[in-house]
Amino acid sequence: MSIRRALSCALVVFAALILGEPASAQTLYGSLTGNVTDATGSAVPGVKVDVLNTGTGLLKSTLTDERGVYSFNDLQVGAYKLTFTSKAFSTRVVDGVSIAQNTTLRVDSILQVSQVQEEVTVSASTVTLQTDRADINHVIRSTQITDLPIMNSQGRNFQAIYKILPGFTPPGEVHSDSGNPQRSMATQANGMAQSNNNTKVDGATISHPWLPRIVAYVPPVEALETVNIVTNSFDAEQGMAGGAAVNVSIKSGTNEFHGAAWEFHNNSAFKARNYFYCLYSCTGDPDRAPKDLQNQFGGAIGGPIKKN
Known about the structure:
There is one protein chain. The protein is mainly beta. It is 7% helix and 35% strand. The strands form 6 sheets. A 5-stranded mixed β-sheet has the order 3-2-5-6-9, with no helix packed on it. The protein has a 5-stranded mixed β-sheet with strand order 10-17-18-15-16. Strands 1, 4, 7 and 8 form a 4-stranded mixed β-sheet that branches. A hairpin with a 5-residue loop joins strand 5 (78-85) and strand 6 (91-99).
């Protein structure tokens, strides 16, 4: 390659780095968008939209464009309050808006003309269909993670929840205790190989470098905020995934201290006997399930390092 050509290529790369707009790491955050209209359905430009994280006090603001559209692309997982403010219109407050990782939530707003200072407060309703993205996206929230029965041989593992999602084979533990001491579970998504799944914790890939079908670290379930799973129509930012792209979000601190204590008990007395147990030979009671007792107990606490 000539020196002139090398310099030209270097200038092109440098210009792209300087002029290109920074892209937000969408897999780490959630997005919020919507249209603001008046009672006649006409777009209302220039409306100030404030979004407040009620857990951390983080406040972000933007204005609607000429089409009455607003957008936030870098919101942390959590509960938010939206405030729509514009001259000659009543202030509208939407409370209880839940933002999940790697998803786009739409909250449209209709403003009413007002001659006096007036504020309308509504509670956000749960959106069951995501219409602003084409991917097949599943969100498992912390309440599901902590409340569903996800006990395996070494404790509770969030990967056990994959069995309730369409397209997944039942997850199971693989490899020996020495090769998989964290007792990660492997599964297939939509018929793809187990090694085609990619799991990230807060944006960092945790796939085992030598055994890619398992993850090198399984976070405690009480530390998880959400688990986002994409199984089709991936965005380019997902990367390194052909079966399922799993994005795990760790809980963030909030302005208030909170905690929990628990004990989980697993008892063979409440289990049905496997049909194939003692089918050909048996050393125990053929009418009872094998003895299996497990107890896991612990606690967790979280709070602010610095408020707001």
